[in-house]
Amino acid sequence: MIGKTDNNINYMTQIQLKRDEMIQLGMKFGLASKQTVACSQELDSLLNEYNRYILSLRERKNPKHSIKRILTMTFFINKTAAFKKKILL
Fold first, then answer.
1. Percent of the chain topping pLDDT 90
2. pLDDT in tens, 59-88
3. Reported pTM
4. Cα–Cα distances in Å, from 18 out to 6, 37, 80, 83?
5. Angle 18-78-55 (CA atoms, 0-180°, nearest 5)?
6. Long-range CB contacts for residues 68-76, cutoff 8 Å, separation at least 24
């Protein structure tokens, strides 16, 4: 059985590898290339999946986190958008 810590490490490893791949593609083909954009979208999916995983763990501990969940997701989406904007500049 895979524990919470193992899942967390697995997600973080996948995210870091995808982030490194995106940076390499951006340096090789340019930030607006199809390869870089596709990799960026894959990274977005991984980040969203990880965020849902973390939020589900929190909700299991305390179901009253629904408002906090919405605020956390909003912050996370804004942070991701700011990171992408920074990369494209």
1. 44
2. 777 665 555 656 566 666 666 666 666 665
3. 0.64
4. 18, 12, 14, 15
5. 70
6. 76/47, 76/51
